[in-house]
Each structure stands twice: as C-alpha cells, then as structure tokens.
Amino acid sequence: MYDLAIIGGGPGGYVAAERAGAAGLKVVLFEQNALGGVCLNEGCIPTKTLLYSAKVYDYAQHADRYGVSVEAPSLDFGAVLKRKEKVVRKLVAGVKAQMKGAGVEVVAAQAEITGRSADGFTVAADGQTYEAAKLLLCTGSEAVVPPIPGLREGLGGAVVTSREILALEERPEELVVIGGGVIGMEFASFFNSVGTKVTVVEMLPKILGPMDGEISAMLQAQYAKKGVTFCLGCKVVAVEGDTVVYETPEGETCRVRGDRILVSVGRRARLEGFGLERLGVELSLNKAGRPVGIKVDAQMRTSVPGVYAAGDVTGFSMLAHTASREGEVAVNDILGKADEMCYDAIPGVVYTNPEVAGVGLTEEEAVARGIAHTVRKLPMAFSGRFVAENERGEGLCKIICGAERQEVLGVHMLGNPCSEILSAACIAVADGMTAGQLKRIVFAHPTVSEILKETAFSSL
To answer: Could you tell me whether strands 2-7 and 27-30 are parallel, antiparallel, or unpaired per DSSP bridges?
Structure first.
C-alpha cells in the first residue's frame, strides 16, 4: 500500500514525487516513456540546447562586431543534435538519481487506473496492481493537429510536430511553420540561424499570441530582417504534400512550399489512455462545451476526494515551471500543510535570439480588464552591460503599474539575457511591490538586471 501514486513523470510528477518522498511518504511513480516528460525529452531542454548552439553560431558569424576574427564559421548539424541528445541523457539520469535519493519507486510502464479499493485507488502497470491512498495525475499534453485537409495525412512525411522535428537528421532547406506562438517562433529562430529559409503562417494578426504586442512586433521586425517571412492573419486551408495552402486577410489564396512543415498550433491535455473515465472526475470545458482539462481547486484537488491533478493535464497553464509548483501544492495538501496555487506571477519566456520574457499583466490585458494603469518603459540600451554585450542589439523593458498605488502588475522585456533577470520581476509581481519599492533595491552594477530599476525611475 502506497501513500501516493503518481501517473506521469514530467515536471509536475517527478517534482511532486521527490517532495513527497523527502517528506516520508511511500510513493510510486509511473512513467511509460523517459523520466522528465515532454519538457526534458521533447520540449524545453532539447530545444534550448539547440537554440544555444544556434546562438553560439550567430556570435561566431558576427564576431567581428566584438573585435574578434573567426574565419569561415560553420555548423555541423549532426554534431548539434548529438550534443542535444547527450544533454538530455545526462539530465534524465539526474532525475533518476533524484527519485532514488527520495526513496521513490519508479515503474517504467504504462499505467491504467482500474478503480477504487477500500482504502484508496488501484492502478495496473506491467501486469501488476498497485494500491495507493492518494492519486496524483500528471499525464501531460500532446501536440494539437487541427483537422486541416491533408495535414494529418502528411504526418510521417513532410509534416512534423515539435517531437519529430527534434529527430531530423538533416537540416531542411526550407521550413514552413504553421503557428507563430512560442514553440513555432523558437523553431523558426533555430532554423533561421542555421541557414534554413523559414516561413511562419499565423492566423492571428501578431506573433506570440497573448504576449506584449509592442515587444512581439519588435521581435517580428528583427526576424524579418534576418530573412524570416511572416504571413500573419492567414488561415491555413489545406496541406498538399510539401505545400501549405493559406488564405490572406484579403481573401487571396496563396501557397508556400517547405521540405518540412512544422505544425505548432498548441497542445491539449492528455485525458485518455490511462483510465480517467473510471474515476468520474469533473472536467473543465471550453466555450464549445469540449473538455480541455481536469478541473482542480487551489490545492490541485479534483472533484473526487483523494485525487489530485497537476501540470498540462489541467489544461490551464501549460508550462513546466507551473507544473512543478502545482505538484508541490498537491503534495503539501496531502501532507496537511496550508498552501495554494496562484497564477498571478507565472513567468513566460521565448528563447529566441534575442529573448522575450514577461510576467504578470500585459498592457493589452490591463486595458481589456478595465484596470487603471500606467506604463513605464525604457530601451535596454539604458543598461551599460546590455550595450557592452549586445552589439547592435535592440531591446525594451516595460513595467505595467496600477494607476493609484503604482504596484507592479506586469514586467515584459525583449533582449538578452532577459530570461535570467526575469526572476526579480516575478518577485515584484508576486509580492505586490510598488515602483517606489523597486527603486530602493540595490542592483549590482554593471548588470543587465539594472534595467528593472532604471525603468521604475522612467517618466510615466
């Protein structure tokens, strides 16, 4: 009899398992693929490894800007992929060691909920039955493949998702990306850097969906200069082999060809294939009445006592760091510790070159919600460290504040390395700091993070 059974070994599942095991609970963790889930094996880590290689190649190509001579730099696509695989293997091994250290039993097999027992729930895996008092569902998500004629039929050929594109052995000469969101733009960035001709087809009039509009436009302009073609406000109506057929906002039908076509229009919660229907948990529905995830409360409890859910399966905030925190909240509730999940300061990063990072409300969200606010913003060039390390680099820092108290409602940035300085902004938003309080913090000089303080001092 286990205290806790966890289905899914991604960022939500393995973090929850470690926290629960370290607290003395008897835990069993089921993962049919590799530990680390999509994030470690098919998403966050592999893509960031590729993007860093691309960034190094970018620096080598433009080293003369920094007074350094690099003769005829080249990129070995196969070697880049091998390094990506090495990084993933190392980190997966680290998670395995973490589970062992916490006393977590890991079952490398597909799990299926078989029902309830007198004292909890039963799960079958690899021909055995496991019983646990509590159950945590962390089954993650899968890439959405919309019902566009020819798209699904093209899978395995020219059409790939974010999973298959990571396994390509050769660099495509031309790539069409369907979807200009975070994942689509990161792959567009990587392949543009390594010499592929990239076209992004996006249904919305802007890239990066709900992220700050001004910053999204700046990033788009920079990538357009690098050679990426953007077809915005365009609806894909068909895929014909290696060709994407789309309609422009003016109603014109156009075609664009690619050696590979990456479909990157979002992900959906994985709700099938593990016996969820046997529990009868309540699901969250979209406006069309279709299930989008498992409904949970602030403690990650489902409608069935003893059953929790965390991560992408809730269909809410599909980010690895969100999943990890949700897993912690679930375990704390099981342990009887007061805790609750808050989504007010969830950071978001786009690892393009330059990076985009943000937390809290955007200017557009503040307007849509009718929140009285002010905007403070400065070019990243107000940071001496940024100028020293980003020759010809452009960037922006924006702070959204409440109109009356000037509390920090959101921070959004474009420029390297904004992903690494975003944590300070997360603390400001999470703790409800005011611009005045931010001004009084001493930042190390010279650092790019000083831009946060300088922006707080900027005129309204």
So the answer is: parallel
d(CA 68, CA 346): 39
What is the DSSP secondary-structure string of 92-141? HHHHHHHHHHTT-EEE-S-EEEEEE-SSSEEEEETTEEEEEEEEEE---E
- H or E segment to which residue 430 belongs: helix 418-430
The pLDDT score that the predictor gives to residue 118 is: 86
Q: What is the pLDDT of residue 449?
A: 97
Strand bridging mode 267-269 / 141-143: antiparallel
In 335-431, DSSP assigns E strands to 348-350, 356-360, 373-379, 396-402, 408-414
Q: How far apart (Å, rounded) are the C-alpha atoms in residues 371 and 293?
A: 29
Gap between the Cα atoms of 68 and 9, Å rounded: 45
Q: Is 62 a catalytic residue?
A: no
Assign 3-state DSSP to the chain and report helix, strand, coil percentages, each to 5. Answer: 35, 25, 40
> What span, in angstroms and rounded, lies between the C-alpha atoms of 139 and 38?
10
Q: Alpha-carbon distance 264 to 190, whole Å? A: 15
Q: Is the entire prediction scored with pTM above 0.85?
A: yes
Q: Report the alpha-carbon distance of residue 89 to residue 91 in Å, rounded.
A: 6
pLDDT at residue 198 in the model: 98
- Check: CB of residue 371 under 8 Å from CB of residue 409: yes
Give me the phi and psi of 108, to 5 degrees please. -85, 75
> What is the 3 state secondary structure string of 260-294?
EEEECCCEEECCCCCCHHHCCCCEEECCCCCEEEE
Cβ proximity of 392 and 222 under 8 Å = no
For residue 354, is the peptide bond before it cis, meaning its omega torsion is within 30 degrees of 0?
yes
Contact between 230 and 224 (Cβ < 8 Å): yes
CA 14 to chain centre: 17
Tell me if 130 sits within 8 A of 2, measured CB to CB: yes
